[in-house]
Amino acid sequence: MEEVREYRALFAVDIVGSSGRGDVALEQIRQVLSAALHASFTRGGVDWDDCLRHDLGDGMRVVAPAGTPETSLIHPLVHELTARLRAHNLLAGKPTRIRLRMALHAGSVQVGRDGTVSGRPLEVLARLLDAEPVRAALAQAPEATTALLVSEHFHETAVCQGRPGIEPAAFRRVDVREKEFAGSAWLHVPAYGGAPQATGSAPDRTSSAPDRTASDADAPAGNTKVISKASGHGVVYALGNGTMNIDGKK
């Protein structure tokens, strides 16, 4: 079967703690995740139908169309997906709440005429998705909905330039050793509202900064406190730049 090599951006997600929830809950989770991915890719200008998708059971691997800018898979996609899942979790019971590990990489892969994809970059993507740093990030921050690990290559091509919506300071370098893969990667944990959040130590506060109230102390640092109410069947979520999005139930 004829295959061609193409440079593609690669994205993968895995649902945290999906086992033991039962078939009904898992099916509901998978439906919510699929819909959120579809909407988030579309919002980022990436045609979902042109993506090559592989169901991982408790997650999904997505190979973006050739020519897709790597930056679009971080912003708005990652922040949009995070916001949508937070909106879902606000109304969901414990068995159907969703937290995600996410990984991004890019490279030359073999693409078959039937849509199959193979190559070393997919192996790297899988190791990043399972890596201890991204698992630990979610374990240490139970309030976080998603955590993202990007390869060194992806970081160089998509993060370092500091494009609008992507803050290099919000990514922390970590070491990854998973099976046959060993190397550096960059960890990012989106803050409340989808805004970028650095995972290192917090910046030093000067005495001129306004005092935080007791209620403010419970809010994540680096984000404007927003109280949102939803009525009817709309789903309301806020992005870090203050934009309010309302999706009506279809």
Short description:
It contains six helices and ten strands, in the order βαββαββααβαββαββ. It has about 250 residues and is an alpha+beta fold.
Tell me the distance between the termini. Answer: 41 Å
| Poorly predicted regions | 192-250
Average residue pLDDT: 81
- The coarse silhouette is globular
Query: How many DSSP E strands?
Result: 10
Alpha carbon gyration radius: 18 Å
In helices, the fraction of residues equals: 25-40%
* Count of DSSP-assigned helices: 6
Summing up helix and strand content along with how strands pair, one would put the structural category as: alpha+beta
Q: How much of the sequence is in beta strands? A: 25-35%
* Sheet of most strands: 8 strands, mixed
Written as H for each helix and E for each strand, in order along the chain, the element string is EHEEHEEHHEHEEHEE
